[in-house]
Amino acid sequence: MRILHINSARTMGGGERHTADLANALSRRGHEVFAAAPSGSPLVEELKRVPPENVFELPLRNALDVQSAIELARRVRERRIEIIHAHVARDYLLAALAARRSEAALVLTRHLERPLKSLHRWTLSGVARVVAVSEAVERSLLAQKIFPAEKIRRIPNGIDVERFERRARSFDTQRFRRLSGIKGRLVVGTAGELREHKGQEDFIRAAQLVMRRFTDVDFVIAGEDQSPRKEYRSHLERLTAELELQTRVHFTGWLEDVASLLPALDIFVSSSRVEPFGLVMVEAMAVGLPVVATTTGGAREIVEDGATGKLVAIGDTQALAEAIYSLLTNEEERRRMGERGLERARRHFSLERMVAETEALYREVLDSK
Fold first, then answer.
1. Is there a single domain that holds both residue 137 and residue 170?
2. How much is the pTM?
3. Measuring CA to CA, which residue among 261, 251, 271 is closest to residue 164?
4. Is 297 left (phi over 0), alpha (psi -120 to 50) or beta?
5. Are residues 46 and 144 in the same domain?
6. pLDDT along the chain (369 residues), means of 10
7. How many domains in the chain?
8. What is the CB-side half-sphere exposure of residue 12 using CA atoms within 13 A?
9. For position 90, which CATH number holds?
10. How far apart (Å, rounded) are the C-alpha atoms in residues 161 and 350?
11. Which terminus, N or C, of the chain has the lesser number of Cβ atoms within 10 Å?
């Protein structure tokens, strides 16, 4: 099949990792894969299996960038592309216009529970299928009634589990600890863009509560504040100082590959207030880590409470601290949960499963034309 993936994001996040992994895997499986992204996007560097001549660097400024849509349609017709697959909401309208001006079928992936706008009901009326990356996202789409239920398919995100296993086996933990200034025997970490809804403030407050009872531990926060003024990162750094945790809470900044952090941890924490999926939780399980997470829609789908980790109420820093403390003081439970988490990642969240299900969806779309 000839498939075009569109993603206008300017930074790498879970959705962009999903796009890159899917495009590369489809190319490995023998499909002719194309991609459209803004010039300078880090996604372009991650499309390692997509031929450079198949990567279209276009402005993709916003949903009203008609010129980019017209250029997309031209290239779709020239390359006889059969499927246009858009991954970011602001690209949906551009992709729909390009599909209307060609013979390609339109597929969308929805990564968020946030409602779409009512105008999408008619602007996206020609969509062939909508992929929901989690049960929570699927429920949200069904509730909005913008797309017919028969056009919605749930295909959970997947990762290359074996790659994370290999990184864990070869990881130099002592070097990481030395470079990061870690002094504690154990390490608890979280990863994700520094934004209020990601709950890093709750993570820091829970760290203070843990330190009152267990001091042989450091805390790592990976991620960066992408806002122009970086106010949330400044807030987190001030909070760390106020709670006198400067020597025990470490900010790594942005990591191109979270696999360069996860094997150094003993526990992974997701303190998000909203998380429709949470790919990094699966990645943590893939290196054998127990996961402590708040009860977001994504976490409830990924983490088996009491088996692969612990779930606590959103915003309850006391419960978050208690769950972390209980695992810090029980090495056997950490090991048991890590083993079960790895097995769950292999069984339910593999890249191979995600790609095969997406490939089947494409064939279903083309067979129904």
1. no
2. 0.91
3. 261
4. alpha
5. yes
6. 96 89 97 96 95 96 92 97 96 95 96 89 94 95 95 96 94 91 96 96 98 97 93 97 97 89 97 94 97 96 98 98 98 98 97 97 95
7. 2
8. 20
9. 3.40.50.2000
10. 6
11. C
